[in-house]
């Protein structure tokens, strides 16, 4: 039916009243403020004029902007509502902005950066959908190149595998040409070896050289998960041999950023006067491994090969002031960005430098190493809840405490994981502990960060960690995702210098602290300060030797550095006596457990 035209009608103006829009914006901002206050979320930007997106309150909301395919996998995995860190970090990363996030252990930080990265990868890729291939393939092409969409850096192999398995579960059944890969030592091993090592006895004797087939990642790799050491080694190769091209890189995610960016040693360079060339002695710290990766990205940006500047996301449970200042000042320099172009959003959930409130923290005084051994036997007989993690100072002490546990109670299923085991051995031990085949897992700080063991009831710090950050990460292996846990720390008289940081963490977490112990620690600090003021430089040096690592390689390195720094003309600015800045804190009073009076392994040797 046609409507007749009426010449008397005048065109009406249907403009929306601006006051209504302003009211809606005010309601949104008030709701966001209330949500942040109730969940203890603090977010700020370097540029105060830049707007911070409001948090998301459910995964299915329009503001979340996550694909329905990923949401389907998300709900099947049991995700219902976003955690505080997820609710605020997802909208920030969807806008492709740089982020420095700090949240408690077990709060869902892995999914907080995987969801926006995978969502942007899905929207950027227009290929056909199929299943995600989960097998490593061998590519024989000489022009093999990988163009990753995102690079995720993790400090350990175990955390790297955990991130990959989580990403595969979130992206399963979506796209086959978006491969999620973990970079192992076996990949591209041939081109990384030295020429002298490539020649074997068989090659010398045979007339025809033996062809070595190189294991490579698929060229369809879009999400590359690696440790900084392995990735920096490949990026240092010449362009014709480097298998990774970062010209299409969109995201660089650094998990456990405080561990990656910490500087335990001074980067000291000196000239060798005998040969006339400069040699740099740089200890193998994570900071020195991450720096070449940023330099490579900077070269790609300067040459104009990159499609767009990649964004950087830094995540950790502990973010000290040094990392914050690095992200504010040095990161834009590495990315070659002006202060006006660089934007960084700082996000913090919960109390800073505090453990999870769901963990009950206990301190048990043992006086000596013999007392710690007796307390451990008491816990095995009465108070140990399984599954349990026991943290030790070194792998030697971890192996020795395993012998003591097995000799005390043969029915306990226990094992050790440390850096001296192969990658396959470590993976099998972690798998056995996850499947409940082990009651007790003894480890060093190798498993102190990022690893998510569901259902861990108790954590025992047999050796007190030297830093409060390490204590927070150790304690955070239990009480994850809202579950309750228990953490027991055994300390002796020699651990008194490290108790100050642990007490401050316990206070911030709301745990009870013994007033007498707090008074004792404060008194010890005053006496140490007065003693250091009275002592000469040589005597101060002897006092600092108590916190120096006893590892053979570090002692040899210190000798070389000290010897050559004396020859360097510009070595006046370097404080040679300050060994504490070169070495990780170490407790020289901890000897071998087998030598402790009453040790069962010692009795077995005598018999």
TrEMBL record:
What reaction does this enzyme carry out catalytically? ATP + H2O = ADP + phosphate + H(+)
- Which parts form a coiled-coil structure per UniProt? 514-541
Query: In the Enzyme Commission scheme, what number(s) does this protein have?
Result: 3.6.4.13
**Segments forming domain DEAD-box RNA helicase Q:** 59-87
Keywords attached to this Swiss-Prot or TrEMBL record, sorted alphabetically, are: ATP-binding, Coiled coil, Helicase, Hydrolase, Nucleotide-binding, RNA-binding
| Molecular function GO labels | ATP binding; hydrolase activity; RNA binding; RNA helicase activity
- InterPro entries annotated for this entry? DEAD/DEAH_box_helicase_dom (IPR011545), Helicase_ATP-bd (IPR014001), Helicase_C-like (IPR001650), P-loop_NTPase (IPR027417), RNA_helicase_DEAD_Q_motif (IPR014014)
Residues of the Helicase C-terminal domain? 358-521
Q: Where is this motif: Q motif?
A: 59-87
Q: Which PROSITE patterns does the record cross-reference, listed alphabetically? A: HELICASE_ATP_BIND_1 (PS51192), HELICASE_CTER (PS51194), Q_MOTIF (PS51195)
Q: What class of enzyme is it?
A: hydrolase
Domain named Helicase ATP-binding is located at: 90-337
Q: State the family it belongs to.
A: Belongs to the DEAD box helicase family.
What does the domain comment read? Answer: The Q motif is unique to and characteristic of the DEAD box family of RNA helicases and controls ATP binding and hydrolysis.
Primary role: RNA helicase.
Please give the name of this protein: ATP-dependent RNA helicase
